[in-house]
Design goal:
Blueprint: H1 2-13, H2 21-29, H3 35-70, H4 77-80, H5 82-97, H6 101-123, H7 134-157, H8 160-170, H9 179-198, H10 200-206, H11 210-215, H12 220-242, H13 248-260, H14 267-286, H15 296-315
Helix pairs in contact: 1-3, 1-14, 2-3, 3-9, 3-12, 3-13, 3-14, 5-6, 5-7, 5-8, 5-12, 6-7, 6-12, 7-8, 9-12, 13-14, 14-15
Membrane topology: Multi-pass membrane protein
Family: Belongs to the binding-protein-dependent transport system permease family. FecCD subfamily.
Pfam families: FecCD
Length: 317
């Protein structure tokens, strides 16, 4: 938490006009003698930092749930294809309706839930068996590839100006975030996070296996559906706020588990690690070499790719 706050303050001071810590604090209090600093802090940078933190927390929490349900470290929303599904709904709203943040969020959640339902149905065995493991991941990758092609088709056939806006959104960005995006992210966490919290005990039992959980009185099927819907909702809201963000949902829970070495799904620590990763990624993007300003989606993709290579290298030993 302290590291998140520290990085958040650093991010408030980063950008084309750098602000010292004292000026940042005065700007937050609204007591700065510099009206430009007040405007930078409250209208531009604070919404950006809060959106990054809320989005990262949502992705980290969703990733922890999916990895626990699938019992696979690769079982994150971006790998399974749920993020791409949410992006499909958002792109449709942008290109066809020139939608605002709320409409984009609704479209992303609806599309994300539909994608999740499709993946879960296709991943079930012939006799209605479990949807966990590599089968779920492989089906998700296939559905994600189809939806990625659909997104490209929408961008190709849409109005040029709207298609350009959607393409910029697809890169994953925190530019131009407002308190409307903050409210959207906060509302998503307020709605879906309590569902996950209420199912923590059931989720811990399900990690021992579906048969064991059923013997302990856990309604496995209903709990899985409830957790999937909540996690897809978190992922979709995050996608609506910033665009598709890669690897935060994958790396956040894994890093949290490695650091805490706690048993069970790292839900709270995974959410905090996701928020930290988003803020760090934006901080790195704002201070990239050669004065390049990198979109956060590009930064997380680059850092996440390096992380995945390191994990694969360590697993060979």
């Amino acid at each position: 938490m302290a590291l998140c706050l520290t990085c958040g303050v650093l991010l408030l001071g980063s950008g084309s006009s750098r602000l010292p810590p004292g000026e940042i604090l005065a700007g937050l209090m609204g007591s700065s003698d510099n009206p430009v600093a007040n405007r930078l802090v409250w209208r531009i940078r604070l919404p950006r930092v809060l959106t990054a933190a809320l989005t990262g927390a949502a992705l980290g929490l969703a990733g922890a749930v999916f990895q626990s349900l699938s019992r696979n470290p690769l079982g994150s929303p971006d790998v399974i294809g749920f993020t791409t599904g949410a992006a499909s709904g958002a792109i449709t709203a942008i290109i066809l309706f020139t939608a605002g943040p709320v409409t984009i969020a609704i479209a992303a959640v609806a599309s994300g839930v539909a994608t999740a339902a499709t993946v879960l149905i296709l991943a079930r065995g012939r006799r209605g068996g479990t949807t966990g493991g590599y089968r779920l991941i492989l089906v998700g990758v296939g559905v994600g590839a189809v939806l990625s092609g659909l997104n490209t088709l929408l961008l190709t056939m849409g109005d040029l100006e709207r298609a350009m806006s959607a393409q910029i959104w697809l890169a994953g960005s925190l530019e131009g975030r407002t308190f409307a995006h903050v409210a959207t992210g906060a509302a998503g966490l307020a709605i879906f996070a309590p569902v996950v919290v209420l199912c923590i005990r059931r989720l811990s039992m399900m990690e021992m296996g579906d048969d064991m959980a059923s013997q302990l009185g856990v309604p496995v099927g209903a709990t899985r559906i409830l957790l999937v819907v909540a996690s897809v909702g978190l992922t979709s809201i995050a996608t609506a706020c910033t665009g598709p963000i890669a690897f935060v949902a994958l790396a956040g829970p894994q890093l949290a588990r490695r650091l805490t070495r706690a048993a069970g799904a790292p839900l709270l620590t995974g959410a905090m690690m996701g928020a930290l990763l988003m803020i760090l990624a934006d901080l790195i993007g704002q201070n990239a070499p050669l004065r390049l300003v990198m979109p956060i989606g590009l930064t997380t993709g680059f850092l996440g790719g390096l992380y995945l290579l390191v994990v694969l290298g360590l697993s060979r030993r």
